[in-house]
Structures are given as structure tokens and as C-alpha cells.
Amino acid sequence: MGSPHRPLLAHVFRGTFVHSTSSSPMEILHGHLLGVDERGTIVFLEETHQQEQLAKKWGFKPSDIRELSNHEFIMPGMVDTHIHAPQYSFTGTRVDLPLLQWLTKYTFPTEAKFKDSDFAEEVYTRVVRRTLKNGTTTACYFATIHTDASLLLAEIVDKFGQRAFVGKVCMDLNDTVPEYKEMTSDSVQETERFVRELLEKRYARVQPIITPRFGPSCTEDLLCALGDLAQARDLHVQSHISENEEELKIVEELFPDCQNYTELYDKNKLLTSKTVMAHACYLSEEELKLFSLRGAAISHCPNSNFSLSSGVLNVQKVLKHHVKLGLGTDVAGGYSASMLDAIRKTMIAANTLQINKVNETGLTIAEAFQLATLGGSQVLGLDDVIGNFEVGKEFDALLINTKASDSPFDMFSTDKFEVTRTGLMLKKKCDDRNISEVYVAGKQVVPFSSSV
Ligand code: GUN
Ligand code: FE
């Protein structure tokens, strides 16, 4: 389709679109037409009465239009701002210990197995398939300390067409499982190699990210070298901060010169406008101010925070400080790889703070939806590319079918869309069975093509 004078259109959808904008956490556009060009860019989103004009301008015919039924709608792909790809191998099991004991007993021994690239290939293929199928169009992955296996994760992400940041984990301290750590100089050199080799691949939508594991597993020499590297190559950074009270005590003991945990990263040039820190449950007002000043972001991982009894992030307090905020599954601290689950757990976390009179109100489902989509794109510095359906952005989207044949919930004749939109994310327990198609940059990636 298309006239010879314009870029060809790859898709025209007609129906209901649900997304967040800067002025509305959830805007519902019934009776709209959305066009995507062959590069995957959204070229129009207009009311259907504009169809004739649009058809003339973009050269499409009525038969080119994909008509959604009234039990379907399109929403932006979700952004998982914090997920550990290797830990997918034990997701949903082994969440019976607090963080530090959980790392020692289950996580480090599992991650050590990724030296074996056959095992890595199996797990990484599964995690990319599972997250894509659950509507994660963009993921910010931790891999392991193994450079080649981490490069393999990037290759698999690219093959399936997901958008992602991939980080080779850096850690030069580990008293409890000493075989799972690196020498400081190796960690830096291997990170340099990882970044160089990943960038040489020129994947369209997969980027490297500098990944010190967290304060207790890094010397200051390592943090300093990684901060220099991030600055020199203008790279994104991810880590964990203030997840658990025991962790905080260790950081205080290890780094007595730092006023607080945030200063440890800031001092080493790891707290920048390209940084995302997971958890942040126990940050002080002062630390949040520094996050805001630096433009650094937080990934809220409520499933993990509940599962490992870590803490509860006060989302409203973070937003009051104008700190960028997104949601993460934190597989396998979190037992679910689904961002719809992260939305639900975000609501529950806010409710617990309300019950305990920490906050007067909870969050709305619309606000949680915004965090999972537009919020996540801001956290990863991708908000000029994805996050909603603004013209000029790339079409990362999910087609939701509320009446999928194996749908886990029932729809009633009295259900209005208003009920559906809130219910879908929460009461109705929408899951991957209701995500019938997934698009990244205009390319359909679910159902999976037979070539992957
Ligand atoms: N802190 C350091 N490493 C980890 C990890 O793998 N998961 C979580 N939840 N917290 C961490
Ligand atoms: Fe984590």
C-alpha cells in the first residue's frame, strides 16, 4: 500500500487505543486510526472521521485497515526496567530467604553455571520468549559475570526482536561464594570488551549497560573504574540500592567515608541521568534529592520486595521528588516475569502504605499503568522513542484480546470499557493469554515467527 511519494505504511489499525501521556496517566481513545510506516514509526493517530483524508495522504485502502473488534484494544508495550535473565532458571521457586542469604544460597551458585554457554543459551532463549509473550517489549537485563554468555544474551534478544539493555555483571567482592567473583582488573577489562563487542554487532535495539552488582559486592576501585568507563563512553548504568536493611548496614561498614549509599555511587560517577537503580526502599529525603538533581531513575520491584521481605518503596514520595520511576519484575527475587503482575503488585504495595497510614491515598491503576509504560521509557532514556503512541515514536505495542479463547477471566454483557480498562490490569487478571500480538518498532514479534 502507499503512494510512490510517501514512505509505505506497514500497518493501519482502527479501534481503541489506551496509553499514557504527560498530562494523563491513562488516555483511552475509542474510534481512532493509527498508522505505522515501514520503518516502524507511528505516522498518525487520528479519529476515524479523518479516514478519508488520511487514506488520501498515506495512500491506503479500506481493505488495508486492521479493524479491531470491540473486545480488543492496543496499548504500549511494557518496559521491564529491572530483570535478571539468568535467574529466570529458578523463577517462582526459592523465595524463602531474605536478600543476602537468598543471594548466597540460590542466586550466586545458579549464576556461576552460566560459564557454560549451552546452559546460558537455553535459559536466555526461554527468558526472552517468556517476557516478550508477556508483553515486555523493552527489558533492562542483568546477565552474569561471564562476558561471552552476556554477549549471547544480547544476540538472542536481537534475534527475537526485543528492545533491551544488557549488562555484564561486575563484582569483585564475594565472601560467601568466593568462586563467583572476578579480579578487579578482569572485571573492568571484560566490561570494556563486552561493551566494545556488543557495540560492534550494531544491533538496532540492543545496547550495553554498565552493571556493578551492588555496594556489598564491589570494591571502590571497581566502582571508580566503572564510573570512568560509563563517563568516557557515555553509557547507561544499572545497579541495586537500599533494597534491604541488612544490605544498608554492610554498605555503611564497607564504605565509612560515604554519608549514605547514594553518595557511594555518586562519588564514583555512577549516579547520572543514564542511571537506573533498583529498589531504593530506604532512601532518605536527602538521597532522593540527589537522585532528582542528577536525573537518576528508580526501578520499583514490588513483587521482589514482598517475596524477599525487603521493604516497601513509597512511590508517592519518589514522585514528589520528581525522580524518574518505572517498574521491574526483578526476576527471580520477584516470582513473576510478567509486567502485568508488576502493575498489580505496585497497587498492593501502595495499599499497604495506605493501610499503615504512611500515605493518605493509594495509587490509581492508571498511575501504575503509566509507570509500566511511559515511566519505564523515561527511566531508560527512551521516552523520545517509545512509551506511548505519540506520532514520531516507534510502534512498540500489545494487542489485548479480552475474549481470547483461553482467557483466564470472563467478560459480562454489562461490562463497560471503563470497567474493563481498570479491571483488566487487576481484577480480571489479564495475562499472556490475552496478549494476542506483540510489536516492537512496527515488527510483529509475537506470535513468534517460525525463523526464531
Ligand atoms: N542485590 C544484589 N544482587 C541482587 C539480585 O540478584 N537480586 C536482588 N533482588 N537484589 C540484589
Ligand atoms: Fe535485582
TrEMBL record:
Cofactor(s) it depends on: Zn(2+)
Reaction catalysis annotation: guanine + H2O + H(+) = xanthine + NH4(+)
Protein's pathway: Purine metabolism; guanine degradation; xanthine from guanine: step 1/1
MF (Gene Ontology): guanine deaminase activity; zinc ion binding
Keyword vocabulary terms for this entry: Hydrolase, Metal-binding, Phosphoprotein, Zinc
Subunit structure: Homodimer.
Listed name of the protein: Guanine deaminase
Record organism: Calypte anna (Anna's hummingbird)
